[in-house]
Amino acid sequence: MSFVAPPPAALAGLPESVLTALGRPLPATGAVHVAGVGGGVGTSTVAGLVWSVLALAHPGAVGLASHAAVLGGGGLGAGRVDARVEGDVPATAPVVVHDRGPHAAVVAEQEPGASRVLVVVCRAHTGGIADAARAVERVGARGPDDLARVVVAAVATTGAAPGTRTVAAVADRVGLAVPLVVVPFSRHLGAGGPLPGPDPRPLAAAGVLSAHVLAALAS
After folding, report:
1. 0.85 exceeded by the pTM?
2. Cα 126 to Cα 132: distance, rounded to the nearest angstrom
3. Beta-strand relationship, 62-66 and 95-99
4. CA-to-CA distance for 168 and 153, rounded, in angstroms?
5. For residues 151 and 188, what is the distance between their CA atoms, to the nearest angstrom?
6. d(Cα 211, Cα 193) in Å, to the nearest integer?
7. What is the pLDDT of residues 122-164, one digit of tens each?
8. Beta-strand pair 62-66/30-36
């Protein structure tokens, strides 16, 4: 199904197929765990972008949570993601996006599961995608049902990052068995600016990523 009303103006430029996917009903409960393969790869940015898109598509129904620490220690580094987003974050919500920081390997052993999705965040280069593939393997070892609830976001942290086709070729070469979405470089987002920010390309990538997330929540 698609939106009953026209989509929000911020999402209106997305492809119809993505808008249709984003307009699907949310599950009664759900959690989206966003975790990076290391520090500085853009985990909080991706969590904020995913929340922004889902919150635009489903006003008041999607929450956002920062986790100061996860099993194994560590913190968020760049600060609280909910301080960077534009708009009010509901105190309670059926679906919550969790910024789990740079702990993809640890989170992969705990998530996903029924009504829970894992977004693994890495840099958009060969080494980053290989790191993401190792985290995905930890999920795959538990079974194909859990693997169906994993998505990888490869973030271009510099303007010299390879193109989407090159990144996709690397993913094929390392045997990445889940969807991969490339988030283009943005000076605004890289500088820690408010999310979703003025750049249309990262928001478009977040729309595709969020469509994968909703499909995985429903799996």
Report:
1. yes
2. 10
3. parallel
4. 11
5. 24
6. 24
7. 998 888 988 998 999 888 888 788 888 999 999 988 776 566 6
8. unpaired
pLDDT value of position 71: 40
Rounded Cα–Cα distance for residues 193 and 67 (Å): 20
Contacts of 168 (CB under 8 A, 6+ apart): 180, 182
- Cα angle, residue 95 at apex, residues 199 and 49 outer, rounded to 5°: 10
Q: How many residues does the chain have?
A: 219
Rounded to whole angstroms, how far apart are CA atoms 46 and 102? Answer: 12
- pLDDT digits over 87-131, tens only? 889 988 999 999 999 999 989 988 888 889 999 999 988 889 889
Rounded distance between C-alpha atoms, residue 216 and residue 212, angstroms: 6
Phi-psi region of 44 (alpha: psi -120 to 50; beta: other; left: phi over 0): alpha
Query: Token pair for residue 126?
Result: 């060969």
Q: Which tens digits make up the pLDDT trace of 1-30?
A: 345 456 778 888 888 889 989 988 898 999
Report the distance separating Cα 211 and Cα 7, nearest Å: 14
- What is the per-residue pLDDT for 2? 45
Split at pLDDT 50, 70, 90, the class of 79 is low
Sheet holding 180-183, edge to edge: 62-66, 95-99, 30-36, 116-123, 150-155, 180-183
Q: Which residues does 195 contact at the CB level (< 8 Å), separation at least 6?
A: 45, 48, 49, 51, 52, 81, 84, 85, 86, 189
Q: b or e along 159-178 (b: 16 or more beta carbons within 10 Å of the residue's beta carbon)?
A: eebbebeebbebbeeeebbb
